[in-house]
Structure formats: C-alpha cells, structure tokens
Amino acid sequence: MDKDFNLIRYLTEEKDKGIIIWLCNIGAEKYWNRVSAGVIDRNEDIPVNRIEEMNLLICREQDIVILREMPDAEYLNNLKSMGFSIPTVMTPEETDLFTPISELVLKDEKLLQKLKDIAEKNENVYFVPYAVTYLEESIAEITGMKLMGAPSSVNARVNDKIYNREISEILGFNVCKGKICHTIDEIRQQYEELTSSEPYFQKVIVKEPNGASGKGLYIIDSRDKLESSLRLIARFARGRGEAKWLVEGWYNKKFDINYQIYISPKGEVEVFSVKQQLLRDTVYIGSVLPPRISGDIFEAYKEYGITIGKYLYETGYTGVAGIDSIITEQDEIIPVVEINGRFTLSTYISFIDQKLKDKKVLSRYFRFMPDKAVGYGELLKVLEQQSILISPENKEGVFIYTAGTLPYKLHEGSDYFVGRVFALIISEDWSKIEEYNSKLENVISSFS
Amino acid sequence: MELVERIEKIITDVLKIEPGTIKEISRDDTLNRIGVDSVNFIEIVISLEDEFNITFEDEELLLQNLNTINKLKNVITQKLES
Q1: CATH of the domain at A239
Q2: N or C: fewer beta carbons within 10 Å in chain A?
C-alpha cells in the first residue's frame, strides 16, 4: 500500500494529486459474513444499487468513477453548476440493476484492461471502494491498481458489533447496558433484566453481530411483543452457525451522532466529519450539518475518533470508518454504538462544505412511492414551482443529489414505482431550512 | 378450510386488516396493494411455516416469487407434496 496516500488531503488540500478510481460497492457486507437478509424485494434493490451516484459528490476532475449506468445528463449538469467536479465515468458493458457492481466489473474484461492500462501508464492510481471485500481485492490484483483500505478479513472483524463493544470496553468508554447472548432463553432473561431493574428500559434492542442497514436489528418495544420477536430472531438464526446476539437497553436520546474518521496507510488519524443524524427507529433518514451540539462535545468526539482510529490502526485497519454514537437524555455520551469499517452514506456528504462555504445543511432521505414514474427533471420542475429548488448562484434551497435512485420508470416484473429521494436542504438560516423541509415533504407526498 | 383461505387468513391476521379486504384483489394481484412489504412479509412467512409445517430456505425469500396468493399457493402446494 502507498504510504504517502492520504484520502482526506487528496479531497481537500491536494486535489490535483494522483488519480482515484472510485467504486461504490454498496451492500458489500454480505461478502464478509452470512447475514440474515430477511425477505428480499428486488424492486427495493434497484434504487439502493443506484445510490452509487452519491460517489460523484467527492470525485475530483481527474478521477474515474465506475457506475453501473451513465447518470442522467440533467443531473450531471446540475452537479457541475453547483461546483462539483465531474470525473470520467466508466460503466461495465454488460450491466443490470441487480448484480453487485464489483461482480459486474470482474466479468468485464475490457473494463479490467482499461483500468490496467490506466494503472500502468500513471504513477499514482489509487482504488478507493466503498468497502473492501475479496471482490475488490481481486479487481486490484487483476488491474494492478493500489487498493486503499484494509484487507477484507480485517474489515469483516471491524464491522462486527460485538467486536465494536469489546473495543469500547478496552478503551474505557461508556457502553450501552446489555450483554452478549448465545441462546433465545438468554435473550429472554436479558430482556427481563433490562426492563425490570434500573434504569428500567422500556425497549430492548437485539442485534445480530453483522447486520447492516437496519437488517438484523430487532427492537422489542413492549412485553406483548417479546415472544413474537423471539420467534422472529430464532427464525433468522437458522443456518447462521454459531448464534450470538448483542442485547442492549434502548436509550432515549437527545442526539444520534455519526462521526467519520480516516486512518491513512501511515497511521495518521483524522476526524473529518461530525454530524447529527436523524433516524426513524434504526434506519437513517438524514443528517444535520453542522450538528447542533456544543463546542466541547464536538471536541470530545474528535478525541474519541482519534483514540478509536489509533486502536484500529494497531489491529491492521486503515481507511474510512463511520462511527455511530448517542447522547442520552441524561447527557451521557456513549461514544460507540457501532463502527462501520467502510464508507457510509454520510461519508459522501462530508465534504460538501467546500462547495457551500459555511452554509447550514439538512440532508434528507425519503423512500418514494409515487403513482407514476418520476425522473430527475420532473422532480426538479415541481421543486421549482414551489420555489424551493436550489439556485446555483446563492446555493440556497433544495438540492437533489442523486438521479438514478428515483422511480424514473417501471422496472420489469414490477407493478408499482419505488425509489429513493436524497436531498440537501441548504440555507444560512435553520428556520428557512425547516420551511424548505416542510415544503419538500409536501412535494414528496403530493406524488402519491 | 381450503389452502387459499388459510393463506388469506394468515395475511389478514398479520396485516391486521378486515378479512374482506383481501377479496378485493385478485389472486394474481401483488399483495403490496393491500400493504404487504418486505418487512411484514417476514411475519407472514413465519406464520405460513407454522401453519403448514413447512420451511422456506433463505434463498427462497424473494418477494417477487411469493407476492401473490397464487404464487404462495403454488409454492406451498409444492412443499406439501415433496
């Protein structure tokens, strides 16, 4: 690995240095560990796979991004007018909306050859995927690109929630009240303990060690639901080998915080973003930038990030890690609820401040189910009619930052439209942001 | 009770909807029309496994293969016969 590479410097102070080949291999977790995926809805997989377009927000002009489809031209123009650099976009020749992007790349000999040529002809070509699994290791090996990230086996360990709790304990951090359970009976017993002794939790969360994006998480919010939840948990433990769960009390929170750290190949650690997250139960719906926390708390997170980063480096980890944390109603900080040893959706909006210059931002995420197809142009037209569409000149209003995730057509085998809207609501003033947000919610609901 | 009626009862119980609601869609209409999604479908699967004493493998849990009454009927019939 190239010891001089530092992703954060390359994205900020040294933007003209080297060429980064980006790949947003979202959904990579399944290659690290067997996870219970539940019932898979392929209609939902389509917009999720197109989240890859978010990668465009951090590309530099000389970079290359590999996407499964060329993005909508109007969307690219819009990104450009907002000041984002448009890199070279490469797409696999044989593509579809379901196959994981790295598998598509590995099947495309022409694309692999192109990447190989680029790596041979240029000195500093770095391969930066969303997450490193054996597939990206194969791409790097075939093409000769320098893969920037820890080995797949290290990533698999870092993304284990039980290991995350152990790290917190080793580092002397506060942890959520709870314990590791190995059987359904132990979970039941732990539920009783957490709900019937101080601080008398109302809800309990059961986490599979390797779940991601809300999967493998079970919230037991009342005693009535205990047995049906246990039945569900047992059902999905089937065939998972050694069953283990992290069972913790559910804290009422003042803030959900996500902080992003970067560990360079040399072991330099930087906390490059601290955001307040908006969650619906356990699923991410948006972020507040800058977070509405005090300067002292902000600084405390920077220290936690450095401590965790140094520890992870000692274990062989390098690259981006997104850490979820909470501040309880009693103002207690629990620095680590979960470590994602990979990019997260929040990573891609961590550098927008460079374009927005000290504006306040609320990012929003909507599962969007309109009655008819809605593409990028059409959504923008409605935002314009409502006078909330961002103006590139003053950078105020609503900016839709992906196009392929929208339900722009009815996909084969489907009889309903489903997509995702990712919006940045930008202003100098929080009250204006709230006003735009409420109008945006009305726009989204007006389509169904 | 007929197989289809048993399937319909499970779906209406899980969704907590009026039993008649399921009759408003045809047996080939997708169940998302009455509120089935990938989250509540897990509960339907578990109830079907219990009711018919069958097992769905993880690989079989693709909503598009199970999202109408007729598709469910065919899959369950096959499982009961094998």
Answers
A1: 3.30.1490.20
A2: C
B60 interaction partners in chain A (CB closer than 8 Å): none
Contact at CB, B38 and A36, closer than 8 angstroms: no
d(CA A180, CA A202): 19
In Å, how far from its chain's centre is CA B5? 10
Closest CB to B42: pick one of A39, A42, A415.
Answer: A39
User: B61 and A231: CB-CB below 8 Å?
Assistant: no
**pLDDT tens per residue, range A229-261:** 999 898 888 766 678 999 999 999 999 999 999
Q: Is residue A288 located within the same domain as residue A414?
A: no
Looking at the fold, whether A245 and A273 belong to one and the same domain comes out as no
Question: pTM to 2 decimals?
Answer: 0.92
Chain B: residue nearest A34 by CA? Answer: B58
Question: The domain containing residue A109 runs over which residues?
Answer: 7-148
Q: Which CATH number fits the domain that encloses residue A387?
A: 3.30.70
Residue range A88-134, pLDDT digits in tens = 999 999 999 999 999 999 999 999 999 999 999 998 999 999 999 99
Give the whole-angstrom CA distance, residue B50 versus residue B44: 10
> How far is the C-alpha of B71 from the C-alpha of A239, rounded, in Å?
25
Domain boundary among A249, A282, A297: A249
Q: Which of A232, A239, A415 sits opposite B30 (nearest CB)?
A: A415
Structural domain total, chain A: 4
Residue A187, domain member (yes or no):
yes
Say what the ipTM of the complex is: 0.84
* Residue A408: per-residue pLDDT: 94
The answer to whether the Cβ–Cβ distance between A232 and B30 falls below 8 Å is no
Q: Tell me, yes or no, whether A136 and A235 share the same domain.
A: no
Q: Under a CB-based contact definition with an 8 Å cutoff, are residues B55 and B49 in contact? A: yes
Strand, coil or helix: A266? coil
For B41, name the nearest residue in chain A, comparing CA atoms only.
A39
Q: Searching chain B, which residue's CA lies closest to the CA of residue A236?
A: B58
At residue A191, what is the residue type? Y
- A24 three-class SS: coil
